[in-house]
Write a structure and sequence with these properties.
The chain is of the alpha/beta class and about 350 residues long. The chain has 13 helices and twelve strands. The chain has a five-stranded parallel beta sheet, sandwiched between helices. A five-stranded parallel beta sheet has the order 9-8-10-11-12, sandwiched between helices. A two-stranded antiparallel ribbon has the order 1-2. A hairpin with a 2-residue loop joins strand 1 (about 30) and strand 2. Helix 4 (about 55-75) packs antiparallel against helix 11 (about 230-245) and helix 8 (about 160-175) runs antiparallel to helix 13 (about 325-345). Bound molecules: fructose -6-phosphate. Fructose -6-phosphate binds next to helix 4 and helix 11. Homodimer. One of its GO terms (molecular function) is glutamine-fructose-6-phosphate transaminase (isomerizing) activity. Its EC number is 2.6.1.16.
């Protein structure tokens, strides 16, 4: 059932182009996203004052990207909460709030409790979920189904990338319902992602020896980036921690100098994401701060970036897409690096210590 792969995680990493293709299927027609089967009406949406995204772990990290998309393109205020905090906080949600819960399994206890609390307060709930007929799917008012197929490995991979895709499609669809002009290049860009995902997976595996070498012997590491890159850095650091047990911190690159730089020592592995055009120069200057302290920097940059190589130790080129679409591509090398770092240390990546696939306790 592993199709010849040594682990489910590696199989699922490689299934992402297909998972993305299946999740896109029949949902973009020309320059229009069709999610009519969610049954959300324009009248309901026009009446909404804010959106609250609630989830745990990797699904929460997907929500961080979701917030940027919705706020950036729709200008609706969005809050993102960890489900275990949300439910005990007297959350600010009511009948003018759309709550979006994100859960691969649809059975995570904290997420389910947050869903119920939101409904009790009068909010309608949209679930982005992968498992059909799950508790979350049954209790939500609206559903966006990711078509990732069963995810067996504890570390989430294809669920994350398809959740991200869900947020793109939902944002564009809401924009259409609200009569807002959505950037046309996003529609064609989304359709290209499955092919580009395949490309970056192959490219990363080609370079894998040199990409994992810097982690040898290290118990600490950093992931940095700005904007969307920062949120993907969060997911990369979670992935590395949970399966390799290497301590990893994700930082907004501009925040390093407010304390964290003290931890940058000679040769410590730092993965820097630098794909966001509008903050590119700023990110590069943060990378230089790390290099000045002799950290070992692997940069993820957009293809055609001939500058960044001068400031870092290694570069992995990400196929060119609009800045807003990079997360689905940048996360792939981070998953692959985590996988190979972990297996090179002899870790059982499919069953990391102390973790369960579906957390049904609070
Ligand atoms: C990380 C991971 C967990 C889950 C989290 C939520 O790789 O798998 O962080 O993302 O437990 O699970 P779901 O999405 O099933 O609610």
């Amino acid at each position: 059932e592993k199709d010849g792969y040594p682990h489910f995680m590696l199989k699922e990493i490689h299934e992402q182009p297909t998972a993305l293709r299946n999740t896109l299927k029949d949902r973009i027609i020309g320059d229009t996203v069709d999610l009519d089967n969610m049954n959300i009406t324009a009248d309901y949406l026009k009446d909404i004052k804010n959106i609250s995204i609630v989830a745990c772990g990797t699904a929460y990290n997907a929500g961080l990207v979701g917030k940027e998309l919705i706020e950036g393109l729709l200008r609706i205020p969005v809050e993102v909460s960890v489900a275990s905090e949300f439910r005990y906080r007297n959350p600010l949600v009511d009948d003018k709030t759309l709550v979006i819960v994100v859960s691969q399994s649809g059975e995570t206890a904290d997420t389910l409790a947050a869903l119920r609390e939101s409904k009790r307060r009068g909010s309608k709930v949209l679930a982005i979920t992968n498992v059909k007929g799950s508790s979350v799917a049954r209790e939500a008012d609206f559903i966006f189904q990711t078509i990732a197929g069963p995810e067996i490995a504890v570390a989430s991979t294809k669920a994350y990338s398809t959740m991200l895709l869900g947020f793109y499609l939902i944002t564009l669809y809401f924009g259409q319902l609200l009569g807002k002009e959505m950037p046309k290049e996003l529609y064609s860009g989304l359709k290209e992602l499955p092919i580009l995902a395949d490309k970056i997976i192959i490219e990363t595996e080609k370079q894998i020896e040199s990409l994992i070498k810097p982690f040898e012997g290290w118990g600490d590491s950093f992931f940095i980036g700005r904007g969307l890159d920062w949120h993907v850095a969060e997911e990369g650091s979670l992935k590395l921690k949970e399966i390799s047990y290497i301590h990893a911190e994700a930082y907004a690159a501009g925040e390093l100098k407010h304390g964290t730089l003290a931890l940058i020592e000679k040769d410590i592995p730092v993965i820097a994401l630098a794909t966001q055009k509008d903050v590119y120069e700023k990110t590069v200057s943060n990378i230089k701060e790390v290099k000045a302290r002799e950290g070992y920097v692997i940069a993820l940059a957009q293809e055609g970036d001939t500058e960044i190589g001068k400031s870092v130790d290694q570069v992995l080129a990400i196929p060119k897409v609009p800045s807003l679409l990079t997360p689905i591509l940048t996360v792939l090398p981070l998953q692959i690096i985590s996988y190979y770092v972990a297996t090179s240390r002899g870790c059982d990546v499919d069953k990391p210590r102390n973790l369960a696939k579906s957390v049904t306790v609070e």
